[in-house]
Amino acid sequence: MTETSHLPLFGGSRAWTPDEWTSSDDRVRGGSSKSTLEATAESLVATFKGTLDITTLGGAGFASQRTATEDGRWDLSEYDGIELKIDHADGKLYTLTLKDEILAKRPDGREQSTLSWEFDFRPHGATTYFIKWADFRPTYRGRDQEGVEPLDLKNVRRFGIMIRSFFGGQEGPFELGITSIAALRTERYLDHPEEEPDEYFDEKLGAFVQRRPTWFGWFTSCLGCR
């Protein structure tokens, strides 16, 4: 039976490294929002925080942190989705983004826009999300897209965490504590079809649980026959 089912990407057993992240705020479009990702080598939690400004761009605004590497590639094709663990939150709406394409920068140094795959979430306190690939929606500059190619899971190029103003729907200081981001396979694949996995993923609990021995089910069924 294959042992790998949980791939730490950021945080968790793989410590947070702030240098792997960089800001991508609306200041690239003339806005005034700003964000940071604060953590140390010993941190169990990375804090995405800053100020979301809606005055400069007339109600629009966004702040985000994204992976800094331009040549990073993650093959997540053997997994079923992303596990996102939140430590604390402020009740605002956030977005997890993935990209499978990064284009060369424009002559002025600005990045060219490409498709993003987004999942919106509004956590209240410590929360764990399991985000299936189908839960990510394709967008271009924040607008939903239809008829596009699926996310290339063999070639994920970028991760990001974003907060948007939604044209005045939210603004001001924000703070989101992130424990970890990992790729998760919800079923342990079998090398032999007749084998029974020792544990399985319980979606209600959001965790792997031990499967009871076969004799236990036989014993309890016999009790019910009395």
| CATH fold call | Jelly Rolls
How many E strands?
A: 15
Structural class: mainly beta
Percentage of residues in DSSP E strands: 35-45%
Query: What count of domains describes the coordinates?
Result: 1
Main sheet makeup: 7 strands, antiparallel
The assembly state of the depicted protein chains is single chain
- What is the CATH superfamily classification? Galactose-binding lectin
Q: Radius of gyration over alpha carbons?
A: 21 Å
CATH class: Mainly Beta
The CATH architecture can be given as Sandwich
Ends distance: 38 Å
The mean pLDDT is: 84
Determine the fraction of residues in helical runs and give it as a percent range: under 10%
Uncertain segments are: 189-197, 214-221
In spatial order, strands of the major sheet run 2-5-12-7-8-10-11
InterPro entries: Galactose-bd-like_sf, NADH-UbQ_OxRdtase-assoc_prot30, NDUFAF1
GO molecular function: unfolded protein binding
Protein name: NADH:ubiquinone oxidoreductase intermediate-associated protein 30 domain-containing protein
Family: Belongs to the CIA30 family.
Describe the model.
This protein is mainly beta and 226 residues long. It has a single domain (6-189), classed as Sandwich (Jelly Rolls), CATH 2.60.120.430. It has one helix at residues 214-224; strands at 6-11, 21-23, 34-38, 46-52, 62-67, 81-88, 94-99, 116-121, 127-132, 137-140, 143-144, 158-164, 172-184, 199-202, 207-210. The strands form three sheets. Strands 2-5-12-7-8-10-11 form a seven-stranded antiparallel β-sheet, with no helix packed on it. A hairpin with a 4-residue loop joins strand 14 (199-202) and strand 15. It comes from Penicillium chermesinum. This is NADH:ubiquinone oxidoreductase intermediate-associated protein 30 domain-containing protein. InterPro entries: Galactose-bd-like_sf, NADH-UbQ_OxRdtase-assoc_prot30, NDUFAF1.
